[in-house]
Specification:
Layout (H helix, E strand, L loop, with lengths): L9 E6 L7 H16 L2 E5 L3 H5 L3 E3 L36 H11 L4 E6 L1 H12 L4 E5 L15 H22 L2 E6 L6 H10 L3 E3 L7 H13 L5 E6 L5 H4 L3 H10 L4 H13 L3 E5 L11 H20 L4 E6 L2 E6 L15 H8 L7
Parallel strand pairs: 1-2, 1-4, 4-5, 5-10, 6-8, 6-9, 7-8
Antiparallel strand pairs: 2-3, 10-11
The protein binds 6-O-phosphono-beta-D-fructofuranose (F6P).
6-O-phosphono-beta-D-fructofuranose binds next to loops.
Length: about 350
């Protein structure tokens, strides 16, 4: 059967920034549709933008993207190399953007597909302004990309976070302790809010709502009076107290460096200091980014991937694939540029959490 007509003949694909479950499912989605339906040539680029700077690339054949739907990580590797930032100590290329443009044209690419978070899609937008054709796919466990209702990776991390909160309940109860669990999310509270509600956290602290430790202490003491001798406190890594929120950025950084390794430790200590309760801190860390994607992330990543192949075929460049309600669409690549989608104060889940008696620290 003859291949369908396609504007794009050859494209490159890379994964950049922090990895997440679903990257391979998305790679498979875009590559399968692009090669089976349109017979496009696909160049896999290793380790994010680093592979374009160093020309570390290879042609991807169907066998390369077969059997990867359920695999965690990324078959292409990832890095946080920033093409528009100053060169790192170990980089011998002085002009990374020129190096990228040269590789792009040497490889004969019609378009570059970038799978990444805010930084990656912003870089994609800047490269599009340098004359490259770019298509972005929104991935991150943080769910903080403007222009899409959801990113892939979020749902899997949510499952992992929820399971951790579930597990902490029993040990917190056995020892009559307050256990503070820290989830990732960068500057946004999506993961902590969702996992906190799903896991029935007694307190949920997110960066969007600066907390007052006295409000938390009152809540925990009230629980104690009602016979609940344990509590689970879910803290986003970017959570901050009212005091921290009022500080200049550099003062906040200094304060944090002097007050424990991360948010969970600060909050656990503050709760102990005010209530005298026995507290423990648990940081879930990279577990949230590892392993096989959830069913929902496999579906979202596959759909984003095949939608990207359609954009390639139609020559609709400089767009980011996105989810709006139940529809997969695309927005201009300028939409996510330089922004962070945080939890709005009127988000329904904030009210839901309050309605079931969860303390949000304010
Ligand atoms: O953006 C995903 C994320 O896991 C954030 O939640 C976290 O703040 C950051 O990446 C960690 O980055 P790194 O992998 O560079 O340690």
């Amino acid at each position: 059967m003859a291949a369908n007509k396609s504007v794009t003949k050859t494209f490159g694909v890379l994964t950049a920034g922090g990895d997440c479950p679903g990257l391979n499912a998305a790679i498979r989605g875009v590559c399968r549709a692009a090669s089976d339906r349109y017979e496009m040539k696909i160049i896999g680029i290793a380790n994010g933008f680093r592979g374009l700077i160093d020309e570390d690339t290879r042609v991807l054949e169907p066998a390369d993207f077969s059997g990867i739907l359920t695999r965690g990580g990324t078959i292409l590797g990832s890095s946080r190399v920033k093409p528009f930032g100053a060169p790192d100590k170990d980089e011998d290329v002085t002009d990374k953007v020129s190096a990228i443009k040269e590789t792009y044209s040497r490889l004969g690419l019609d378009c570059l597909v970038v799978l990444g978070g805010n930084g990656t899609n912003t870089t994609g937008y800047k490269l599009s302004r340098e004359g490259l054709n770019i298509i972005g796919l929104p991935k991150t466990i943080d769910n903080d990309i403007f222009g899409t209702d959801k990113t892939f990776g979020f749902d899997s991390a949510l499952d992992i976070g929820t399971e951790a909160i579930d597990r902490l309940h029993s040990t917190a109860q056995s020892h009559s302790r307050v256990i503070v669990i820290e989830l990732m999310g960068h500057k946004a509270g999506w993961l902590s809010l969702y996992a906190g509600v799903a896991g029935g956290g007694d307190v949920i602290l997110i960066p969007e709502i600066p907390y007052d430790v006295k409000v938390i202490a009152d809540h925990l003491e009230k629980r104690f009076r009602y016979g609940k001798t344990f509590s689970v406190v879910v803290v986003a890594e970017g959570a901050m107290s009212v005091k921290e929120a009022a500080m200049e950025k550099k003062d906040r950084k200094k304060y944090r460096q002097e007050n424990g390794p991360s948010a969970a430790y600060r909050v656990a200590r503050e709760i102990h200091d005010v209530t005298g309760m026995e507290t423990r801190a648990t940081v879930l860390g990279y577990v949230q980014r590892g392993g096989t994607p959830s069913a929902s992330d496999r579906i979202l990543a596959t759909s984003f991937g095949t939608a990207a192949a359609e954009l390639l075929a139609e020559g609709q460049y400089n767009r980011m694939v996105s989810l709006h309600g139940n529809d997969i669409g695309a927005v201009d690549l300028s939409v996510p540029e330089g922004k962070v989608k945080t939890v709005p104060h009127d988000h329904y889940l904030i009210n839901t959490a309050k309605d079931v008696g969860t303390c949000l620290g304010a």
